[in-house]
Structure formats: structure tokens, C-alpha cells
Amino acid sequence: MITELNEREQTILGKLSENGAVTVTALAQDLGLSEVTIRGDLKELEDKGWLCRTRGGAAPAIHRDIMERRRERLDQKNAIARAAAALVEDGDVIMIEAGTTTALVARYLMGKRDIHIVTNSTLVFSYARMNPSLQITMTGGEFRRPTESLVGPIALETISRLNVRLAFVGTDGFTLERGITTHLMEGAEIVKAMKAHAETTVLVADSSKYGKTGFASVLPLSALDRIITDAGLADGAARELAEAGVGLTRV
């Protein structure tokens, strides 16, 4: 069953993000709980891919910056990922690009059968590896810790050899004028490659990304088959996208 972060888990992650590491003893004192309870919480968070338990405590499983991004607008991101996963059919081969929203798609594939995921995201791997029904192909490539992604020539070569029905991609910002954009050139190349080898390309991005523009242009919105975002996208923006012929789902 998919479970969300409870208040105590969010508090623990907040302390982990602030301090870089936590101890069982300090957490138990701060939260007024037993060390046994805290160890259970840390195990749950480790199973969800948020941290790695250490002797007497825990350390982040991922870069602190991306940990912060994972915690932002979590309800909206989960709703978007759930809607995206509903597009996946038994027997599908799909690509999932690195990103905090895209990674969540893997969580919602429970109950699907014979799904093969191709990804450059270590976050996707952390979710998908817990589901024995999923086959996973990692692209390989150079690891970029701030985005928990694999990029570069090896990653692009792997993607170029494969063909899939669906590709789920993310963005740092999207507008009608600039399309989808990113702050990292290497990430832009990954998205373009996935688009070129997928029958259907779906952008999954929360509504806060609309109107923002990253450093590098990736694709025009017309190159996407669908955008899945949350209900926070303003009605006016939704009308603009619809009038431009962009397929849009608000959840």
C-alpha cells in the first residue's frame, strides 16, 4: 500500500535536512518518544528511500537540496504521479526521467504487471526496487548528486537503443512561449532523447512550475502529448494552454 509521510516523519526529515545527520537518542529526546519508536520511524523512512540508517542514527540517502525539493508540495506531486501511473498498462515499457515528481510515478505502479522501467534516476530506482513486479534498466552515465540523475554520453547511448510506449519527463519551468525548460543542459539532452524514443511523452509538473523559465530550453509544449499538473493551476492558464492545443489534465 502507498503511504504518505506522517507529521513525525516530516519532522525527522526536517531535522535531517537542517543538520546533515541525526541520532536516535537526540530524536527521542526532542520528540519525547522512546528510542524503539524512533528506530521504527527511521526504518520506515529508509524503506521509502529518504535516508540511510547508520550506527545510532541516520544520514540522508540523497543530496540535501533534492531532499528539500522532495518535501515541497508533496500532496500535489503524489496526486500528479498517481494520475500519470494510471496511464501505464500491463506489459508496458516506459521511461522515467529524473525529478522529484517523475520519481513518484514508480510508487504508484503497484498492482501493474510486467512493467519495464528505463530510467536515469536513482530516486526512481529507490522506489521501483521495492516492487518485485517491476523490471528496471538504469541508463548508466555520470552521476549528478544534486539531481540524483545519470547523464552524459553513456546515458544518451542507452536511451537511443530503446523504444518505449510512454515517457514521463519533468521540468524546472514551463510556459507557452519557452516550452519546458531546465537549469541543467545535460538534463535537457536526456529529455529530448526520451521524447525521440517514446510513442507518447507526458510532462508531470506541479502548478508552481508554470510561468517559470529555466536556463536551457528543452521542448516546445506542442511536442508533448499531455501535461499532468495539479488543480492549483489557474483557470486562466489552463484556458491558455487549451487554446494552444496542449493536452492538459489537472488533478
Can you describe what's shown?
By secondary structure, the chain is an alpha/beta fold. It has helices spanning 7-19, 24-31, 35-47, 64-71, 74-85, 100-105, 122-128, 153-160, 185-196, 235-243; strands spanning 22-23, 51-54, 57-60, 93-96, 115-119, 134-138, 142-144, 149-151, 164-169, 173-175, 179-182, 198-204, 216-219, 226-229, 248-250. The strands form four sheets. Strands 6-5-4-9-12-14-15 form a seven-stranded parallel beta sheet, sandwiched between helices. The chain has a three-stranded antiparallel beta sheet with strand order 1-3-2. It has a three-stranded antiparallel beta sheet with strand order 10-11-13, with helices on one face. β10 (173-175) and β11 (179-182) form a beta hairpin. α1 runs antiparallel to α4 (64-71). The chain starts with 6 loop residues before the first helix and ends with a strand.
* Proportion in β-strands: 15-25%
Count the DSSP helices. 10
Radius of gyration over alpha carbons?
A: 18 Å
What is the ordering of alpha helices and beta strands?
HEHHEEHHEHEHEEEHEEEHEEEHE
Tell me the total number of β-strands: 15
Overall residue-averaged pLDDT value: 92
Secondary structure category: alpha/beta
Unreliable stretches covering 5 or more consecutive residues: none
The main β sheet shows up as: 7 strands, parallel
Helix content: 25-40%
C-alpha geometry: globular
**Which strand order does the major sheet show?**
6-5-4-9-12-14-15
